[in-house]
Amino acid sequence: MEPVQQPNQLNIEISEEIAEGTYANLAIITHSHAEFVLDFVNVMPGTPKSKVKARVILTPQHAKRLMKALMENIQKYESVNGPIKDLEEIQLPMNFGPAGQA
């Protein structure tokens, strides 16, 4: 028996490399009248230079959908795990991270 595919169901594949993900602790968002550009960066303490690890370009409509989806998922997360503290609420020392050089 063949699996029944629902109408409008999307079949999405992901490569192993993409499935591993890329860590980012900074997102830089710019936009024009036609698109939003999200640059994801991994900033390491004590390093003077950081590289963009991923760039995602969205239409304004998709950027708004992403914002709504993030808001819904954050609400779901917080309902189970409690409020996420904003970075301004957490006092991080300016020299956090490993000391010394590798």
Structure write-up:
The protein has 102 residues and is an alpha+beta fold. It has helices at 16-20, 60-81, and strands at 26-31, 36-41, 52-58. A three-stranded antiparallel beta sheet has the order 1-2-3. The protein is extended.
Structure, briefly:
The protein has 102 residues and is α+β, with helices and mostly antiparallel strands. The chain contains two helices and three strands; from the N terminus they run αβββα. The longest helix is centred in the C-terminal third of the chain and has 22 residues, at 60-81.
Task: Name the descriptors.
102 residues, extended, 19% strand, alpha+beta, three-stranded antiparallel sheet
Q: Which radius of gyration do the C-alpha atoms yield? A: 19 Å
Strand ordering within the main sheet: 1-2-3
Average of per-residue pLDDT values: 87
Largest sheet: number of strands, sense, barrel closure: 3 strands, antiparallel
Q: Estimate the strand proportion.
A: 15-25%
Broad structural category: alpha+beta
Shape: extended
Topology of this protein?
Layout: H1 16-20, E1 26-31, E2 36-41, E3 52-58, H2 60-81
Antiparallel strand pairs: 1-2, 2-3
